[in-house]
Amino acid sequence: MTKFWGILNNIESYICRTLLAVFVCLLFLQVIVRTLFNFSFSWVEELSVYMFVWFVFFGASYAAKMNAHNRVTFQFKFLPPRAIKYIEAFADLFWLFFNVYFIYLAIDFIFNKMNRFQSSQTLGFHLSWVYIVLPIAFTLMTIRILQVNYKKIILDEDLVDPDAIDLEEVRAETGADPIDIDSITQDQEKN
């Protein structure tokens, strides 16, 4: 049961990895076939575009899970860390409302307003199979936003941006000496 929850908790990561590997291999195959045999598969490009679109939306959900979406945070430098947590959660409420409304619009479009005869050009399947990623990914993103805010506010976990660089850790790994700013400015003044 623990393995099931582990897979479910990382579902976006697994989907993104699979999609990326498959569409890169397909595009590589297309390049090789075009270069060596002067031939191309018409369906590879279309399928790769659809897979890339799915990759982007599931990647956005994964970024929400990692608390790695871009935010303007300069104004938070002057506030206490406890207040920042609640202000970000309040801002995430607007994000949640947008997601819920977008999920409603996407489901309405796919099942009610979409042309019943609209199909992909070379693959021939109905385009609703492509657009179904919208309500799925935005639902996952909504769950991930709630999950991140639960961890930050209720469990009081400090979620670190995965792109943040810890200079002290880099210095420890590389054995580099800290830069002495005073000596640099003194050298510049002499010159």
UniProtKB/TrEMBL annotation:
GO terms for cellular component: plasma membrane. One of its GO terms (biological process) is C4-dicarboxylate transport. InterPro entries: DctQ, TRAP_DctQ. Keywords: Cell inner membrane, Cell membrane, Membrane, Transmembrane, Transmembrane helix, Transport. Residues 24-147 form the Tripartite ATP-independent periplasmic transporters DctQ component domain. It is found in: Cell inner membrane. The keyword Cell inner membrane applies. One of its GO terms (molecular function) is transmembrane transporter activity. Pfam families: DctQ. It is a multi-pass membrane protein. The chain crosses the membrane at residues 20-41, 47-65, 86-107, 127-146. Its main location: membrane. The keyword Transmembrane applies. It comes from the Bacteria. Belongs to the TRAP transporter small permease family. The complex comprises the extracytoplasmic solute receptor protein and the two transmembrane proteins. Part of the tripartite ATP-independent periplasmic (TRAP) transport system. This is TRAP transporter small permease protein. It comes from Ruegeria meonggei.
